[in-house]
Design brief:
Two copies of one chain form a homodimer. Chain A has 376 residues and is an alpha/beta fold. Chain A contains eleven helices and 14 strands. The radius of gyration of chain A is 27 Å and the shape is elongated. In chain A, 54% of the residues are buried. At the A-B interface, strand 1, helix 4, helix 5, strand 3 and helix 6 of A face strand 1, helix 4, helix 5, strand 3 and helix 6 of B. Strand 1 of chain A pairs parallel with strand 5 of chain B. Chain A binds a DNA duplex (30 and 30 nucleotides) through helix 2 and helix 4.
Amino acid sequence: MTRLARPGGSPLTPRSVDVARLAGVSQKTVSRVLNDEPYVSPGLRQRVLDAAEELGYRRNQAARALASGRTRSIGVVTLGSALYGPVSWLAGIERAVREMGYTLRVAATIEGDPGGIAGALASLLDQGVDGVVISEPIDEGVGLISVDVPVLVLGAPPNFAAPQVVTARVGAGRFARAATEHLLGLGHETVHHLAGPQRWYSARDRLAGWREALRAHSADEPPVVEGDWSAASGYAAGRELAGDGTVTAVFAANDDMAIGLIRALLEAGRRVPEDISVVGFDDIPLAAYVTPPLTTMRQPFDEVTRRGLALLVQVIEKPDVELPPAADQPVELVVRASTAPPPPRPIPGRGRRAIPQAYGVPYGQPAGSEVPYTQP
Amino acid sequence: MTRLARPGGSPLTPRSVDVARLAGVSQKTVSRVLNDEPYVSPGLRQRVLDAAEELGYRRNQAARALASGRTRSIGVVTLGSALYGPVSWLAGIERAVREMGYTLRVAATIEGDPGGIAGALASLLDQGVDGVVISEPIDEGVGLISVDVPVLVLGAPPNFAAPQVVTARVGAGRFARAATEHLLGLGHETVHHLAGPQRWYSARDRLAGWREALRAHSADEPPVVEGDWSAASGYAAGRELAGDGTVTAVFAANDDMAIGLIRALLEAGRRVPEDISVVGFDDIPLAAYVTPPLTTMRQPFDEVTRRGLALLVQVIEKPDVELPPAADQPVELVVRASTAPPPPRPIPGRGRRAIPQAYGVPYGQPAGSEVPYTQP
DNA sequence: CGTAAACATGATAGCGCAGTCAAACGGGGC
DNA sequence: GCCCCGTTTGACTGCGCTATCATGTTTACG
């Protein structure tokens, strides 16, 4: 049976003095050994390690933090939701934090709570974290926030004042531009955009990238439809767009909305990709398996978080060293079956068309629903 | 501009003594006020609060922890992945932890690392957490683990020795049984099961529930196909099952696998739900928007985590009080379009059938892919 | 009006480590 | 042989708070 004890949990768990006594050294020497400080003879070092092992000694982190002023922990401000993007950031952060020898404390912002970021940050700082990660920030009318520990901002421009602010971004704009250009390259006259909520920096980045691509190709810029990242909002947008006969290509700001959008298009009798092409964003694990498989942009979450945290830790430990410039991650477009060249000629008129005949398609015979489908 | 400072961050941040001096009381009185202890006169209390406010005082948690032996934090052992189930647990836990006035520390198990749970637990206990949440545990040959703080085990039987072990479970078995019975109720002779990895308790629960339902209805028990929760594994299973003409209904242990499964069936020319019905598990937000919309079991993540954490905190703070018995959550089946009665007569023979004509379906005309689809 | 409770405050002593400084030791250069 | 300097070790102190106990100060009630 594995036995795990919390230091200080009971009066019986050993203290560093106990280790010192057993090893026949001073308490300070135990501290030296355990912190890998120089000036300890190899013999003593081993004796201390053996004694610590024998007693099952674990350092009390609260005492360490109090005495040293450092907690060796990093706080992350995240959204308390199951959105794929934020969750993937969190998973990557956990891994990277542990790799760097730190521990992780989490504070979620409460959805829709303005000043939520400030609240979450305050909670983390109260806990004495040595650094903070803000993943995918939203600007809900919060002004500049000033924090007295280094900050890593993921996927957004920094609007924090801190001893050091480091940024690691995917560069969503470039990705959005590539997605849009993929559609233009297939021959679409223009590309509609189903945007994310514009309070999100990453949503604005994607919008900007889409706009850039259109301008660079002198394409018309159709009105933007804004969703809230959810498939439900994509579905709602899809019902709108399905009625517009001029739409032949849509770039959705994330995969969930893209999938909701596609569902609405299919229900309205618009085929994907024959009538309308759709590109998503994120490459969620399901993207390859929905019908039709989704063309999408893959985000390099892991590389970005790992690199960002390495910078953050460097800044925490050696505040004076100059940081290397951030390197952009390569853009990765995953082409699947939701994009194709536009239909031969523009569909005349507006409004719902008659339901067309189904193709005999090479891969599979999808089916609609027989049970009446109601919005959940 | 919002200014946030870390207690102890600089020598200038105020201490409780500073507050005491400003309020003209002893340091101990400040401590009393801030801990809401009785026996402080209202006048003094207010003076102390004002002084604290004026100085922007924040308590140093490390010192509090050291002096009191409690960190007011709860650790959660989680999987470092973006799987919907674990992630939803985590989101629910964060919310509940904050509601209870605690903070959250996270340690992820490293995938495929045996003893990963023990390692993550050790890391949390080293940090001095007052309680631990194990979400969706796996038993990777780890024996009984003994921990010296209370433990909340979500969604699984406890195999931990601790001062107190509380369990909060969805009761996945009952849910799986309901899912299976839904299919049997539609007239299917039996139901195949696409199981989750059997190292997971929740996967075993679901398998057991499925089996129970079959037995109760005296239905044949077909061989189980095991996936790894991913859509890719569902897809692989689907290729297998598509070749078996006797399959008319499948219960998948989660939605991702169900979606991968459906994709493979469609590609093989088996219609869903006309030829084969599929039920998923989780009710991920996308489930309503894939094609066909997925019939699935909704898990009450929030209720279960909230209730579980309330119990955990009670056990931490008042170890002697008797706990109320756990109440089962109601089973919730969300019927969408991926399930239907079986086809009129058993499909003769085995192997691939010719691609049938598409229905003119009431809701939408889904399309397959024209671009050749390759497994990612 | 006296006495026992209840209330209100403060002095003092740790919690378990890391930081500071001083002391002891040892080898090389003169 | 003496001094200097790098090495090795330990005694002592303090991080900022909570806990314990002692000391006043009221109130309750016979």
